[in-house]
Amino acid sequence: MIYLDYQATTPLAPEAREAMLPWLDKFGNPHSPHRPGREAAAAVDLASTEVATALGDRGSEGRLIFTSGATEAANWALQGAVMRGARRKIVTIATEHACVLDTAEWIARQGMETVILPVLANGIVDLDAAAAAIDDRTALVAAMLVNNEIGVIQPIETLSGLAHDAGALFFCDAVQGFGRVDLPREACDLVAVSAHKVHGPKGIGALWIRGGLDWPPLIHGGGQQLGLRSGTLSPMLCAGFAAAARLADQRRHDDAIHISMLSSILENPFQDWKVNGDRTMRYPGNLNLRREGVDATRLISDVREVAFSAGSACASGSGRPSHVLRALGLSEAQARSSIRLGFGRYTTQEEVEQAAELINRAAALQLEWA
Fold it and tell me: Would you call 172 a catalytic residue per the annotation?
């Protein structure tokens, strides 16, 4: 099987697996005062420091709180913003991940205000609309660094500037960009990341909170993690996340060269396809393509030798066309004719070449029999 669905999840790095294995036998609770507990606590503290360092926080400029994943971190960021003060307005973008859009919708149902900004045809946010929407009632502006479906990179620093000029906070969903593209962390008040998108284990993510920012807890109980998120942490997951984040930081240059090479190889075999989203302001390891008349769902079923998708794994079972592609102005038919190819560190040149041949062959058969 050729795996080209890196935006859904990434293969576990051998280094992350190695870091996790000892904690299958070391069962101490990291919140207990005895020696096994202290050893586990030390591993968790080290992991927190290493993930924060990979985010660019090399001087304890903020607090990194482990969560069950980026979905929890995003929920916490948006809900916390409207809980902590008098402002009750959230501004975000139509192409955001469901964890942000659905939380914003929930906030709106509680009687608060939510503004969903449109994007241009290339997937970049409409900055004029953003400037008009972000005002002195805004609690938080939320934007993805790299879009999970089309790979477009949003102007984070510009959006952050608009938020801060209005006295609002800025939250960045950096899940798809962490360890891959530049993260302007200094422009962010809150940042969400996920381990399994950087070759770490599933079931753990984190919310980075800028230093000095008073933040309300979302989960209550034993007061763990500085009283901000209660619950017993898994040293095994924390260690795996830390190893994966450290490796992503160390390998970022080499990974970027490898991924750019794979992207350039795919340009020629997919000349009959159109790229969804901006061609330059994008992460090259995410290639979202469409070909008129092709049924993407059928194509995925036909090409069983390749694992690829038609969009977000979180929405794949809904049966609805991608909200991201529709936000770009694509018709329902065009959205259903689009596929997403995601590749990365462990993808080989031979794999992408073979996958392109298999996908194009199946697409040609579809069109021939249409």
Answer: no
